[in-house]
Amino acid sequence: xxxxxxxxxxxxxxxxxxxxxxxxxxxxxxxxxxxxxxxxxxxxxxxxxxxxxxxxxxxxxxxxxxxxxxxxxxxxxxxxxxxxxxxxxxxxxxxxxxxxxxxxxxxxxxxxxxxxxxxxxxxxxxxxxxxxxxxxxxxxxxxxxxxxxxxxxxxxxxxxxxxxxxxxxxxxxxxxxxxxxxxxxxxxxxxxxxxxxxxxxxxxxxxxxxxxxxxxxxxxxxxxxxxxxxxxxxxxxxxxxxxxxxxxxxxxxxxxxxxxxxxxxxxxxxxxxxxxxxxxxxxxxxxxxxxxxxxxxxxxxxxxxxxxxxxxxxxxxxxxxxxxxxxxxxxxxxxxxxxxxxxxxxxxxxxxxxxxxxxxxxxxxxxxxxxxxxxxxxxxxxxxxxxxxxxxxxxxxxxxxxxxxxxxxxxxxxxxxxxxxxxxxxxxxxxxxxxxxxxxxxxxxxxxxxxxxxxxxxxxxxxxxxxxxxxxxxxxxxxxxxxxxxxxxxxxxxxxxxxxxxxxxxxxxxxxxxxxxxxxxxxxxxxxxxxxxxxxxxxxxxxxxxxxxxxxxxxxxxxxxxxxxxxxxxxxxxxxxxxxxxxxxxxxxxxxxx
Length: 594
Ligand SMILES: *Cc1c(COP(=O)(O)O)cnc(C)c1O
Known about the structure:
Shape: globular
Pfam families: Aminotran_5, MOSC_N
Radius of gyration: 27 Å
Bound molecules: pyridoxal-5'-phosphate
Structural class: alpha/beta
Protein name: Molybdenum cofactor sulfurase
Helix content: 25-40%
Number of domains: 3
CATH class of the largest domain: Alpha Beta
Distance between the termini: 43 Å
Domain Aminotransferase class V: 41-158, 241-487
CATH topology of the largest domain: Aspartate Aminotransferase, domain 2
Domain Molybdenum cofactor sulfurase middle: 531-578
Low-confidence stretches: 508-515, 517-528
CATH superfamily of the largest domain: Type I PLP-dependent aspartate aminotransferase-like (Major domain)
Number of strands: 24
């Protein structure tokens, strides 16, 4: 064993690798994730991976049983109903939700569950939709329903204001309001807060950008009107309903609804155990469910209707009222095999395992220095005492820096990582509030970026000297020390300039970082300004090119442009995805000397 791993185990050995569990992490990887050999998959916040044994069990289950449409009245239909009932129970158990108080409504994902709440919430002119800055786009979108119905919406930053010395719990929080949004200013001004309206407060249990966890005591704090606004405005009267977006947090720390009785919780199963996709759930308190208004009716949600008169009788059960059409019953039947994996390892052990890796990675990244002593990165997500919760989930988000303090573009990191067999995600991760907050982007920065043509997924990773997104490493229950080691070695090789070749190698590969111009795209490409500055030949798609002083022309432009490619001896086209970094490097050097 290498010295670094021995050191890691000395510090984290009690938490890492499921000691005392049914299988060690190395056994899990060797038997259930054989397909990962040589690859470091570090995008579990994007989607975690299913175990190969889990898939075998699902296959066996589906090939051995006959599951019919649950709306029929046959034996196969009863088999389905039974397995759906037990899946709902497992979901509730996972959140420690009593079946007396909570129901599990299956949806096509966390987003669909959020949309359902937004669509059916009893908004009125007196309502407010308040959400933390750090929230997924799918939560922000709820505000469209709120504004449409004349409610107001605003984002808040929250921090601890008081601590209860007896219980150690947070006693109140201070909220800083951002811009207040309304569709109709007049209505907003003569609002009287009579206290009869329903308001909705939404926050993630863990931020999918930074990994910061939110304190679940917020549920109580919001419901008891214990939020103080920094602008002095009185706390909003009315009845508060609280929504937790647990899509990210649920994989390692499901919210405990027996302690923190939120009204709505949304989750997605591919974030828990990789399979199935297209299935999530809304876990709803029965009292809150009664407030939700349905407009649409459909097969599945209707008890009786008459085609040519305005008559419909809806089904009574909460699940039946909200699940349109035939539920994805075979996907639902697969859930027990996923829960089995999590339950056999146990959630506390998964949480300790993943957080030991994240803490280790954070410590190393903070300690890594350029030879001139400057830090190689800025990590996002604080552990400051003023934030509501000091804990971090298994996510490390950061941007790398050059020795002179300038930023390394996140897309450059992503492309090089992919060449090195490391899968991670970069950008804003659908969380524009967290992105702006952590990267220090003002409204005017964001407007300039959007004007310059920047969209979420493009290559503009630095605009006006500021990053437009971050690099995110996120871990799952099957992540290993070796995955992290591979990533650390990658960062040290390409981004710490101790070896003078680091920078050369990088520019050999991917050219310079893709920094975008400060002005709009049109200006840059207007015909009158076209001016040939250099010619670069790119022999392999997406990899570095080499420069030429001259190149012959044909009637269609540059001679042979896009007319040739490199093949392996077996005739396979070479691309960055199929060839190792070392091979590409040799090829590149070879070609540039031809
Ligand atoms: C993934 C994610 C979502 C979206 O979930 P889908 O099931 O893909 O719709 C929402 N919020 C957070 C925090 C997430 O991580």
